[in-house]
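Before the break, one more example. Copy the sequence into your notebook; we will annotate it together after we see the structure.
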Amino acid sequence: AKTYGEAVQMVLDAIKKARNGKFYNYRENQLGPDQLRQSAKSVEVFQTLGDEQKDYDILVVAAQFGIRHRGRSVRRAREVMLDNGNEFGLGAFAIGIMILTHPERLKNVDDLWIDCAGDEYAPDAGGDFSGAPYFGFHDGWVGFGTRWTGSADDSYGSVSAFIPQQ
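Here is what the structure looks like once it is written out:
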């Protein structure tokens, strides 16, 4: 894809297909570069991982699916990740692929919903990137939307990955 938002849309389309159409994108046609972007930390880490793991079709990275940051706002989870040094938030593209490769996730309303702490979202495309994407489960289908980074809820957890220690 030419842009990050286009790549995310491709993954969202694949989730919809894998879930037999049981998917809803609350941000349909709202994933342009003025609204959705990767955090600087995520861009930096994935560039490094790409350089280190060149000549492979996929990048391999240790990750957790949200339980580590359950109940924390995205903003707080990002602060904790910074303190840890080797941890960084994953975005909608990487998390969407994780959902595709782990179809057991988001099958029940009681499943932990997923904050995408590695992405930033500007709700009005005005430069205020105060939101972040999330994946949730609604009445039998997976949903993709955004919410304010300051919202903390025990039903959500930020997904993160870990940089290998040298």
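Helices lie at 4-18, 40-52, 74-84, 92-101. The CA atoms of residues 42 and 118 lie 6 Å apart. Try to locate both features in your own notes.
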